[in-house]
Structure formats: structure tokens, C-alpha cells
Amino acid sequence: MALFKQKAVWIGLLAVFIVLAVFGVAMMGSVLGAKPKDLPVALVVQDQAVSLPNGKSLNVGAMAQEKLLANKELPIAWHLVSTEAEAKQGLDQEEYYGAFVLPADLSSGVASLMSDNPKPATVRILANEGMSVQASTAVKQILGQIALGISSELSKQVLHMVSQNSDVKVIPVGMAGALLAPFQVQEQTVHPIGTNNASGNAPGMLTQIMWIGSLVVSLILMFASQKALASGGRRFGVLLTQAVTGLVFVVLASGFLVWMSKTWYGMSLVDASGTWIALMLGGAAFFLLQSALLSWIGMPAMPILVLLMFFSLPVVNIAPEFLPQTTHDWLYEWTPFRFVAGELRHSMYFADASISSSSNITVLWYIAAASLVVKLVSSFRKVKVRTVEVSHTETA
């Protein structure tokens, strides 16, 4: 019973609940309940209207477009584009998670179902896997269901028209089979993630490893700098040397990480050199940010840096359209992790098709430059120097 009289026991119990609550919010609260909304998808309608034997006009593409744009329950934000080539360009530039292409011969293919020689058209579904496996998979499933719904509705309409045609007494086998599938559906994955990429989570994983590596460098150089200052080094010079040395370490560490990923684990990289540059710049921004906080606050900065990592990691591998609005606005928008992961995703999956918009790179340069300035400014602050008074007593 004496143990329970100790305040440390109850303080420790309270600390456990606080830690569980904080890390529970970090690891689960920001992502649980995530669901897609407003996923950008390109809609290509090239279909040309055709005249039916009864004198009416058939324009499947226009009908499908009208219904899709009017359906507000779909978690998709449609972007109308003129051609499939234009849609593919948007996929290359990481603007769309997928594309739904209604070809020019869609209506004529449906009309041919009422003949002895049906020629169904092919509707194409493109999924942009490199942009987000999670989002592209959702888009592929949604577009597949849309195509199935359109197909079912067309089958009913064509069957109704055939039944009203008095010239048709018996439906030929070929026509009957075609009525079950008024058009073909072809799925294609663009910018595949390749092999050994952690189901598309490799950019976030490499970002996490780089953050931890940069933090180790920051701590080692902080302790080394403290010893250099204690031995009489000038604070500005020590901090500047610390920054330069840390950047050299980051360059070497990022190169080793890319080499290790490819040679040890067989990770597929479209642009290995671009991945190294992205990791190098991200590591530099991480190191300077961490080092600036440590220069001003010291070891109390560690909980801030650790919590930043745990709060950021769950969101960098999730498409932003899946995140709760609060998480998106208050965490995803500003965490440095997402800029590094975003640039890595471009280098690893898109570098062969498009030039980076460089927005991620620009932000990382700003973070690195601002952190370096803040770090060096800390050399001009007043530092309390502990003095030890020694009393001399005379001995008789």
C-alpha cells in the first residue's frame, strides 16, 4: 500500500493517459473516417450523334455527360476535356486521378446492336496510380460502376427499340449477346508505382526515414557544438560550421538512402537521380528546421519534433481529398512532410512524363533558407553563463 501513497505513481498514470490521447489523435484521429470527396477526374466526350431507322437521333455521350454532371452524390469533381490526349496530359501533370473516355463511335456502336453485325465501341477508364494508389483505385471502382450502370440502361433501351420493330421476330444470337454489353470497357493504369514500392507508400516512407536521419544529425552536431562553445569557440562561427557540416551529412545520407532502396530492396524508381535530389533538398530543409529549433530551445524542442513527425506521417500517404476538412486545413496544408513526399512521388513515378511544377521544391527552399537564418540569428541572443563561485578559506 505504501507504493500507492507515492505521487509519482498517480502522476505516471496520468502521463500514460495523456501520451495515449496525444498519440491516438496523431495516429488515428486525423485519418479515421477518411472518405473520398471531389476527386478530380477528366471526362472526355467525343461521341457523335447518329440517326436511328425510326428517324430519332441517338447521342449516348451527351446523355451520359448530362447525367454524370447532374449527379451530386458521386465523390468526383468532373473536368471536361476535349480529347483523350488532353486528358493524358493532365494525368502526366498530376492534375487528375483518372479519366473516363467516351469514344467518337459510342452511339454508332450502340445503334449497330440492332443489326446483324453489331460493333460495340470501347469506353476507356484510365487510373493515375502514381498520383495516389488509394485515390486511383477508388476512381477505377467508381468509373467501373458508372460504366456498368450506363451499359445496363442502354441494354434496356435498345431491347425496347428492338421489341417495337415489327420486322424483328427472332433476336439473332449475336445481337442477343451484344445487348448484354452495349460497349466494351477497357481499363488502363498510367504511371504505375512499380515493384517494391510499399503499395505506393514509398514516398512517405522515405520521407519518414529522412526526417529521422536528419534528426540524428541535428542532435549529434548540437552536442558537438556545445563542446566547441565550451572550449572557447565563437557562437556564430560554430553555428555556421554546424549548418554546413550538417548539410554535407544530409547529402551523403540521402544518396545512401536511394542506393539502399534500389540495391537492397529493389525499389523501382523512374528517376533515381531526381529522387536523390528531392531527398537531399528535403533532408536539408528537415535538418535546418530541426537545428534551428534546437539552437533556440535546446532539448525541449525534441517533443515538438517527435509530435510533428507522428502527426504528419498518417496524412502524407493519403490523398488530400480523403482527409477530414480540419485535418486538411490545420495539418496537411503546412506540414513539411507533404512537400517532400510530393516531390518524391513526382521523381519516382512521373519524371519520365512531365516536368515538376516545382511548387514543392520552392516551398522546401523557403523552409531551408528561413530555418538557416533563424538558426544563425540565435547566435546573437544572450546566453546565461553559469558561474561557480569558489570560496578560499585560510587555514591556520
From TrEMBL:
Keyword Isomerase: no
Membrane topology reported for the UniProt record: Multi-pass membrane protein
Domain ABC-2 type transporter transmembrane: 7-337
Alphabetized InterPro entries for the sequence: ABC2_TM (IPR013525), T7SS_ABC-Transporter (IPR051328)
Record carries keyword Membrane: yes
Bilayer-spanning residue ranges: 205-224, 236-256, 276-297, 304-323, 358-377
Pfam families attached to this UniProt entry: ABC2_membrane_3
An annotated Gene Ontology molecular function: ABC-type transporter activity
Record key words, sorted: Membrane, Transmembrane, Transmembrane helix
Record's GO cellular component terms: membrane
Subcellular location: Membrane
Protein name: YhgE/Pip-like protein
Annotated organism of origin: Paenibacillus taihuensis
Lineage: Bacteria, Bacillati, Bacillota, Bacilli, Bacillales
